[in-house]
Design goal:
Number of domains: 1
Main location: membrane
Distance between the termini: 15 Å
Pfam family, one: FecCD
Family: Belongs to the binding-protein-dependent transport system permease family. FecCD subfamily.
Transmembrane segments: 12-32, 64-81, 93-113, 119-139, 151-176, 196-214, 281-303, 309-327
CATH class: Mainly Alpha
Structural class: mainly alpha
Oligomer: single chain
Subcellular location: Cell membrane
Radius of gyration: 20 Å
Order of helices and strands: HHHHHHHHHHHHHH
Number of strands: 0
Length: 334
């Protein structure tokens, strides 16, 4: 832990927020079409309808806000899940959320011929939420109720099941592959502010709820027996965490498709900086998650310019080394 006192933790959180604002500004400015700080400012102060101004207002600004919101949501969801499951590799993908959302979109296109992006968002959120509810219900079966091991196994099983169904539909209908492949890889390209506004209320509830429940998450992290001994209703808290994860991760999948690794990597970085107190981990994870996804999106614009690669590919490239390190550290008990 780098920051130990309350003062330094506040300072670290403020610095992280400043960095987030800077990378958001960079996301608005940098891309295939050359613009600069002055052009960006003029696009909002004296809009003239030029190609540069249109791109800044209608393309880059929405994808910047969406990337920030999705990155923050995935990181906070990952922090909650890692505490809930006692699994250092837990992430929204563990709940089957990504796979459930992807499967819902593929079914909508292949069976019902849906081709509207707004419909994709609604269906992806519903599919993600249903998948998470099924995993939670399966993980709660048995005498001991919801346990970290059962939840992890149920999530892994449902993720594999939905992924298999999705791949099966794509194999049957090759034309479908072209329509959904970019979305399934995770992308904020081409999204509009309306996309974010449709899921922002759910994300907002998730952000606020996660901060409000942070103190109780500290107690839950001590173990169920200790938490019960301190008077905590562990069943209610676990259910609340499950709902918050559905809101955060489900909204993220609906807005940008299934994006991996953010929920795994960022909470570990936040804990290494600010400690294990969830009252600090949750807000810092949100800010760092936004920074990571925005930086990944900026990088995705330049790798194969003039073409762009999905931001989900960039997070995989960035996150894989961290994933390996966390896996080795977690399983070696070091």
């Amino acid at each position: 832990m780098l920051l130990k006192s309350t003062t330094t933790k506040w300072a670290g959180l403020i610095v992280a927020m400043v960095i987030m604002l800077l990378v958001m500004c960079a996301s608005v400015i940098y891309g295939y079409t050359e613009t600069n700080w002055r052009t960006a400012i003029e696009a909002f102060r004296n809009y003239n309808g030029s190609n540069e101004h249109i791109i800044i207002q209608t393309v880059r600004l929405p994808r910047t806000f969406i990337a920030a919101a999705v990155g923050a949501s995935l990181a906070i969801a990952g922090a909650l899940m890692q505490t809930l499951t006692k699994n250092p590799l837990a992430s929204p993908g563990l709940f089957g959320i990504n796979a459930g959302g992807g499967f819902a979109v593929v079914v909508a296109i292949s069976v019902f011929s849906v081709n509207n992006l707004q419909a994709f968002n609604v269906l992806a959120f519903l599919g993600a939420a249903i998948a998470a509810i099924i995993v939670y219900a399966i993980g709660s079966l048995g005498r001991q109720g919801l346990t970290p091991m059962k939840l992890t196994l149920a999530g892994a099983a449902m993720s594999a099941l939905f992924a298999s169904f999705t791949q099966g539909l794509l194999v049957i209908n090759e034309a479908l592959l072209d329509q959904v492949l970019f979305w399934l890889a995770g992308s904020v390209q081409g999204r509009k502010l309306e996309t974010l506004m449709s899921v922002l209320p759910y994300m907002g509830i998730g952000w606020i709820g996660s901060i409000l429940i942070a103190k109780k998450m500290n107690i839950l992290s001590m173990g169920d027996d200790v938490a019960k001994g301190l008077g905590l209703n562990t069943g209610l808290i676990k259910m609340t965490v499950g709902v918050l994860v559905i809101l955060l991760a489900g909204g993220s999948v609906a807005a940008a498709g299934p994006i991996g690794f953010v929920g795994i990597v960022v909470p570990h970085i936040a804990r290494s900086i600010i400690g294990t107190d969830h009252r600090w981990v949750i807000p810092l994870s949100g800010v760092l998650g936004a920074v990571l996804l925005i930086c990944a999106d900026i990088s995705a614009r330049y790798i194969l310019m003039p073409q762009e690669i999905p931001v989900g590919v960039m997070t995989a490239i960035i996150g894989t080394p961290f994933f390996i390190y966390i896996a080795r550290k977690g399983f070696n008990g070091k």
